[in-house]
Write a structure and sequence with these properties.
This protein has about 270 residues and is α/β, with parallel strands linked by helices. It has a domain of about 170 residues: Rossmann fold. Helix 4 packs across helix 10. About 25% of the residues are buried.
């Protein structure tokens, strides 16, 4: 195209500019400012197009207001129920991390997102590196990529006033890529909580799983043994061996409330 864009071309419709591409202006028939005369375009007259004359909203975009927060339910801590927080729920396979995290996010009285590391890992369809087929550089790289993606999502939610809860099997003997990595991805306000039921309970729950999320009993026992190292870390630990989902979520609320009341030195 040798001339300017059409009046309703893609530049004016999809990507409005503060100074749209010019269109020819009618020549002035008579005296004008200095440097202009009959048959000439005034030097000081700005270009004008119909797109330029359209009224666009000024200022940041507006969003519908958040729904009003109802009064606290009896027995629930108002601080833990209303604060925007990022919780990292740590535990072995079969501990119930995903189930508890989803229930906790569903029942909060403020907007809360559940970010599942396994779900994000499985976004990769062709070329998915399943650790059950052997832990290698590809599976390690996909885990790292999924953690960075989850951390990026968590920061976005928090920046918009939405709490989030993430779940991952983080080992205490790998602080750089484990808990330290999550703190780098999400930020210093991350609240890590360990969900660690007994081995018998974990084995029973793992047996009820299907697909590539079900592990062998030997692998579950090995992971559970490594998770025992969290007992000396100072992190809050919830043993949900005898607790249902609702009670475990309430215990998680208590942990979050204590952490917000007096920031711990985790």
């Amino acid at each position: 195209m040798t001339g300017p864009f059409p009046r309703w071309g893609p530049e004016s419709l999809l990507f409005p500019r503060s100074r749209p591409f010019p269109t020819p202006v009618a020549r002035q028939r008579g005296p004008g400012p200095e440097g202009a005369g009959p048959g000439k375009t005034p030097a000081s007259r700005p270009y004008e197009t119909e797109c330029h004359r359209m009224q666009y909203p000024v200022g940041p975009p507006t969003h519908p207001p958040m729904p009003a927060v109802p009064p606290p339910a009896p027995g629930q801590d108002a601080v833990a129920q209303t604060a925007a927080v990022a919780v990292l729920l740590i535990g072995p396979a079969g501990a119930g991390k995903t189930t508890v995290a989803r229930h906790w996010a569903d029942t909060r009285r403020v907007p809360t997102a559940h970010i599942s590391l396994d779900d994000v890992r499985e976004w990769v369809r062709s070329g998915f590196a399943d650790p059950q087929s052997g832990w290698n550089d590809h599976s390690e790289a996909q885990y790292r990529l999924a953690r960075r993606t989850c951390g990026f999502a968590a920061r976005n939610f928090l920046a918009n006033g939405i709490s989030c809860i993430l779940d991952d099997a983080v080992f205490p003997d790998r602080p750089v890529v484990g808990l330290g990595g999550w703190k780098r991805h999400v930020g210093p306000g991350l609240l890590p909580v360990v969900l660690l039921p007994g081995l018998e309970v974990v084995l029973e729950r793992n047996a009820e799983r299907s697909g590539n999320r079900r592990l062998s009993d030997e692998e579950v026992a090995r992971i559970h043994g490594r998770m025992a190292g969290w007992y000396g870390s100072g992190l809050p630990i919830i043993d949900n061996s005898q607790q249902d989902i609702t009670t475990t979520a309430r215990l998680l609320d208590d942990v979050v409330a204590r952490a917000l009341a007096g920031p711990p030195g985790w």
